[in-house]
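Sanity check record (used in CI):
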Amino acid sequence: MLCTWLVSGLWPYTCSNPEDDEIWRQCSIDMMHVGIEKDPETRTMLRRVAQIRMYYWYEEQVKRVREMQPADALIFSDDILEKATYTLLERFYSAWKITDHVSREELRKTFEAEKEVGKKWCELVYYLGEGILVICGKIMDTQMNRKSFSSDDVHTLATFIINCYPQVPQVCRCFDSVVKTFIQKGVLSHDELRQWHDELNWDVLKGGLQEIKQPPQQPVSWFPVEKLSTMMDLTNFIRTQASILYN
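Expected output for Isoprenoid synthase domain-containing protein:
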């Protein structure tokens, strides 16, 4: 399936104006695609990428809201976050202004849930590399979508993987370019796909696959993985693709 996604595209085709780069439009398209894909395997991968993009759009909207505030205005952080969320939802749902309060809250909770899962994926990327979005199985989606699975749990998981399965981050790096393609909603030509395939480090892949088939090995000493700070920019790996992100 991975080769099919790279050549045919992971995302459904939509007509769009490349000059129309409003954050709300991009976010709304991502939200729509999460819901319309029918193939289970494609839907799983698509949802992961859509979730990290949605978290990115949200963070960008928060920045815009902050920039629009007068320098001397006393604005609480929670107010800014709430305004960013409702701005995106108002633009996405054409009937937002006539939607009742209960329905609005349900829509907000759905958006918040998807966005928060996207944040946790971005945290895992920070620790292990972008390719982790591709190599994880569906069990990881179940974990990520659990509300009780926190940022501390992501750090604990990453620490366990790095110490007990040290080749996993190297395997992840083999698929970084795949994730970049998915983030950009791009495709590869058959020649580009062949080049990517030929350039893969098969020794790393085989060694990593062999390692994760075995029970975890207790390391002689645990390597301490520094926990990311609350001020860390988790979406920079997405932002680096911004020049061709608006599709």
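Residues 7 and 190 are 7 Å apart (CA to CA). If this sentence no longer matches the regenerated tokens, the check is flagged for review.
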